[in-house]
Design goal:
heterodimer; A: about 475 residues; mainly beta; seven-stranded mixed β-sheet; 34 strands; about 10% helix; B: about 575 residues; mainly alpha; 33 helices
Chain lengths: ~475, ~575
């Protein structure tokens, strides 16, 4: 009798502690959000916390490697302890982790089909910066540039337009994924392009004589002295049909190179005439080439669907600061049946990653927009079928070891962009991407901001919102010759 | 407390609560509805954590929680009157403590009256009132501590935490301490200075942590400086009450009469200066339209007869929904075509942008509606609006985009009062074709694509009508757009192409416009008859023309009978270009 009572008490204790009993094993994956099923992750990423999309009341998560494992209990959400997670990943790097979810649903315990997380020992650059902005078309209200430590959940605001008179801020980029070399545009009455070199900030008015606008899209030369930019007259218009939403096109766009040491602009007539539109320039990894998108000018907006951008390249000599006389086309839009934008060369010089949409130059609202990868040595193109998803996949950035890239994707809801990471091995094989983990996975459900222009860097930026505020109000912009 | 004081206490409490309830319920309810619409409160942990990114997290969270209840009819008035009662009660004890006056119940009315007046502003947040109450409660707790060192320590703790909890209201906390301790003869100069300096510097020290410019750091959670009148008013009341204390014993009857009278004067003139009853009328049209009470919109519009673009905007939509826009368009004030569509432009105020999506949704241009709703949310004071999220969910459902719709429905299902609405829509299969309202909306939407600039409303209307000529609402808007701009050529073109296809008697307004054009083009009888204009209307036109010619266009001679005709508008309305 005493034994029965004792066992009953023990059973009661265990059942009240939530240990699964009478578990029903099913052969489907759990309905987790975000979709972390079968993804490849770097060893230095923060925990992949997720939630269940159904009415799960309790959950037990077991993550098992060859030598180590952790078990976590949760309700509808899982919060994996950071220390245990890091230890597990370090221990199991180079191997797969088996992930098993057992959930209590409508009073019944269900054990789902286990899935795997492949842990790569290739590190990803530890910091990701992005702009938090409503997907609000051509206007803005509150904008922040935010830097997130990918290895933890720490977030820091590096610029906030609440401190700079509500000005727009955009297009923050790094040179060689180096946090000590970066820039972004700060618009407004007292704005300019903010150049960061080792924490020293300069404000530059990039609009030189004869240029159609200030600098827009750009890229640093690997040496850091130069940057190549496009200047654009940007026109947004609205589609009429269902979910097509917004179309943005340039009525004019040109290219120029900025010399930060001499405050000079460099260009060529064929890069700044009205017969063609040049945009999204990027330097090659060795700095000897400028890749850019180019489209013959067409009548706009009526011929918008004929506006298709090729990928071209022109040489650049850093020692003399001169651009080559002739450009080559390395990707023909008409032939390929699309329009290229957002070019980014891998740091090892092997690849060119770009976005292709059916037409135009603003793919974030094009649902069909997908990433493609070109092998710069062989010219082979990978359509990244296991990377691209429904809805727009667009703006991207490489990690400094060329093993990872991040891109903005609207695959979730078609409206709000989020940063997704993808692994690419030395042979060019890519893996299933995963979204930036959040401490509370429901952040993505409730946010009304897009994570815009995700850029990787190998360290924290050496300035913050206070410095940006100071330079906005207190410094006069340098002018370009 | 004597019997008289108890009676007075009860009367003042009851009077304040009832009066404030009646005021906000009967005269200012729509402002409160609108305040709920421009914000969003979620029962979610991530949402709660977001409050710590700025000071006054407690006041803001509690304030936003209470603002939810403004959604209910009577909820806003009840919430505010209860808040005012609580404010009054605690003010009473604070004033008693500091000024030691028997008339504390009457003096306590003044800060509450100020808060009442401030709540007539759209941007005075409930969080400010909550923060005010918290300030007073913490002061009372502080004042109850008799152990000196404990009081100093507690005071310091409150000073440090106060800004974190309730923001700028705590800037007067050191003044309350000084006032109280001076009165009781405890002079803690060092403590006073320390508290004062800490609180004065705290916004500057913390502003970069909270990412606030200097001015905002000193007034947060207020949006405008005007809200700071509340804590200032309290200090003034304490000063005046303390000063008049010595006269109270001898003149108690006078005080019993004068204080309430002065309060009513303050309230009356304060409300007169700060409340905007015209805006309340416009918000009544807006809210009733938002709630779907179309007949009520028209009824109120007739009653108010406002000469306001915004009022006309809602009236026109209500008329269009009932299919009677071209019958009654000129019964109401029309500022040319600007009362048909509210522009989304940099020089427009946020309230105008906030409601601009309604007409696009009505006529069936979902992408224009989405653009406006997205911007309405972006430019609303808190960048998260329950009303805009509902509209965005609807638009995505009409577009057949279930993942997009679910994004917003999921958020709304974490609210108290929109949860049911969201959950009922989550069950809808947007592609099934069984939902009547979805089918009706989709019947209006384009089936082919084009692109147009976001301010090209004419392009939108033309395209919608071209796609679906039986989209009567869009057609009426297009025809009225031309008529209000006196563009008869365009009107005739569109009417001939699409208007004649609609199976209905020729609307009054169109008849009148057609007759002008037919007369000007010397149309023969056969052509006139082909438009099926009523003989009565033709006779009226003949009469109008006769009188016009006879009196040489005397406006007085024509106003009485023809003041609401298109002929009158055509001749006498002047269109001013903005």
């Amino acid at each position: 009798m005493k034994t029965i009572v004792f066992s009953a008490i023990i059973g009661l204790i265990f059942s009240s502690c939530g240990a699964p009993t009478k578990v029903n094993v099913i052969h489907t994956f759990p309905p987790i959000y975000p979709d972390y099923i079968g993804v490849t992750i770097p060893v230095n990423v923060s925990p992949l916390n997720f939630l269940m999309r159904d009415s799960t009341e309790k959950m037990v998560l077991t993550i098992k490697g060859l030598n180590d494992s952790i078990t976590i209990k949760g309700s509808r959400k899982i919060d994996i302890p950071l220390k245990k997670w890091k230890k597990l990943l370090v221990e199991e790097q180079g191997r797969n982790l088996s992930v098993r979810v057992t959930a209590l649903l409508h009073g019944e315990w269900i054990q789902y089909e286990p899935f795997y997380w492949q842990v790569k020992s290739d590190l990803i650059d530890s910091y990701l910066s992005y702009r938090l902005i409503e997907p609000g078309y051509e206007v803005w209200n509150k904008i922040q540039l935010v830097e997130r430590n990918i290895a933890s959940f720490d977030e820091r605001v590096i610029a906030d337009n609440n401190l700079t008179d509500g000005s727009c801020m955009n297009c923050h980029i790094y040179g060689n994924q180096n946090a000590s070399l970066s820039m972004f545009h700060l618009r407004g009455k007292s704005g300019g392009t903010i150049l960061n070199r080792d924490g020293k900030l300069r404000k530059i008015n990039t609009r030189g004589k004869g240029m159609i606008s200030n600098a827009v899209y750009g890229s640093f030369h690997p040496g850091g002295r130069y940057a190549v930019f496009s200047t654009n007259i940007i026109i947004p218009e609205l589609h009429s049909y269902r979910s097509e939403r917004l179309e943005v096109y340039d009525t004019a766009s040109d290219l120029f190179v900025l010399d930060f040491d001499k405050n000079e602009t460099i260009t060529r007539p064929f890069l700044s005439d009205t017969t063609s539109l040049e945009t999204f320039p990027v330097f090659s990894a060795d700095g000897k080439w400028i890749y850019y998108c180019m489209a013959p000018a067409v009548s706009l907006p009526d011929s918008i669907k004929s506006l298709k951008y090729n990928i071209c390249r022109v040489s650049f000599d850093a020692s003399t600061g001169t651009i080559g006389l002739k450009a080559d086309t390395i990707w023909n839009a008409q032939k390929m049946g699309g329009s290229a934008c957002h070019l980014k060369t891998s740091p090892d010089g092997k690849y060119l990653l770009y976005t292709v949409a059916d037409y135009g130059t603003f793919p974030i609202w094009h649902r069909e927009a997908d990433l493609q990868l070109m092998n710069l040595k062989t010219g082979e193109i990978d359509h990244l079928k296991n990377v691209n998803g429904p809805n727009s996949d667009s703006y991207h950035s490489w990690s400094s070891n060329s093993r990872w890239f991040v891109f903005a994707s609207k695959r979730d809801d078609g409206i709000y962009g989020k940063p997704y990471f993808c692994y690419i091995d030395s042979t060019g094989k890519t893996s299933k991407p995963f979204v930036l983990p959040q401490r509370d996975p429901s952040v993505y459900d409730y946010t009304l901001k897009s994570f815009n222009i995700p850029e990787l860097s190998n360290g924290p930026t050496p300035f913050d919102a206070r410095d940006v505020e100071k330079i906005y109000w207190d410094q006069t912009a340098e002018t370009m010759k | 407390m004597s019997a008289f004081e108890k009676k007075r206490f009860g009367m003042v409490a009851l009077g304040l609560t009832i009066l404030s309830f009646l005021f906000f319920q009967l005269f200012y309810a729509y402002h409160l509805f609108f305040k709920e619409q421009i914000q969003l409160f979620l029962f979610a942990s991530d949402y709660f954590h977001s409050y710590f990114h700025k000071p006054a997290w407690f006041a803001c969270y509690a304030g936003d929680f209470l603002t939810q209840f403004f959604y209910l009819r009577g909820g806003g008035a009840a919430t505010l009157s209860l808040l005012f009662f609580l404010e009054w009660l605690i003010c009473l004890f604070v004033i008693k403590r500091i000024a030691v006056t028997k008339n504390a119940p009457l003096w306590a009315l003044y800060p509450v009256g100020i808060d009442w007046i401030l709540h007539c502003e759209l941007l005075h947040p409930v969080s400010f009132s909550v923060g005010f109450i918290l300030l007073l409660i913490l002061f009372l707790i502080y004042s109850m501590i008799s152990i000196r060192w404990l009081a100093i320590v507690l005071g310091l703790i409150i000073v440090i935490l106060g800004y974190w909890l309730a923001g700028s209201l705590f800037l007067i906390f050191p003044l309350l301490i000084v006032s109280y301790e001076w009165r009781i003869g405890k002079f803690n100069w060092i403590s006073w200075m320390l508290n004062g300096v800490i609180l004065l510097l705290m916004p500057i020290i913390l502003r970069h942590f909270y990412l606030l410019p200097i001015k905002q750091a000193y007034i947060y959670p207020a949006i405008n400086f005007q809200s700071m009148i509340l804590p200032i008013a309290l200090m003034i009341v304490l000063l005046v009450a303390f000063f008049f204390n010595r006269f109270e014993e001898k003149n108690s009857r006078k005080f019993n009469v004068l204080l309430p009278i002065a309060f009513f004067f303050l309230l009356f003139f304060g409300i007169k200066a700060n409340a905007n009853f015209d805006r309340e009328k416009i918000l009544s049209l807006d809210s009733e339209y938002y709630f779907g009470n179309i007949d009520r919109v028209i009824e109120l519009s007739r009653k108010y007869s406002l000469k306001s673009r915004s009022a006309t905007y809602f009236t026109n939509m209500a008329l269009a929904q009932k299919g009677i826009l071209p019958e009654y368009l000129l019964d109401f004030y029309q500022p040319a075509a600007s009362g048909l569509i509210l522009p989304v432009a940099p020089n427009e105020n946020w309230q105008s942008i906030f409601v601009s999506n309604e007409v696009f949704y009505l006529i069936g241009d979902m992408n224009f509606a989405q653009h406006s709703a997205m911007l309405g949310n972006t430019f609303s004071p808190y960048q998260r609006s329950s009303r805009m999220l509902k509209r965005l969910a609807e638009i995505n459902m009409v577009n057949g985009d279930s993942t997009g719709a679910n994004k917003y429905l999921r958020i709304l299902s974490e609210t108290m009062f929109h949860k049911k609405w969201a959950e009922s829509r989550e069950t809808i299969n947007v592609t099934s074709g069984t939902e009547k309202w979805l089918n009706e909306k989709r019947a209006q939407t384009p089936t082919i694509d084009t692109i147009r600039q976001s301010n090209n409303y004419l392009a939108s209307l033309n395209f919608l009508v071209g796609q679906h000529p039986n989209n009567v609402i869009a057609l009426d808007y297009l025809l009225c757009y031309h008529l209000l701009n006196k563009d008869l050529k365009s009107f005739i073109k569109v009417y001939n192409q699409y208007g004649r296809l609609i199976d209905r008697p020729v609307p009054s307004l169109y008849s009148e416009a057609l007759l002008i054009q037919l007369f000007a083009s010397n149309a023969d009888q056969k052509e006139v008859e082909s438009y099926a204009i009523s003989p009565r209307k033709i006779k009226d036109f003949a009469d109008y023309t006769q009188i016009f010619e006879k009196t040489k266009g005397d406006i007085q001679a024509l106003t009485g009978r023809f003041g609401k005709s298109y002929w009158f508008y055509y001749h006498f309305a002047t269109i001013q270009k903005r």
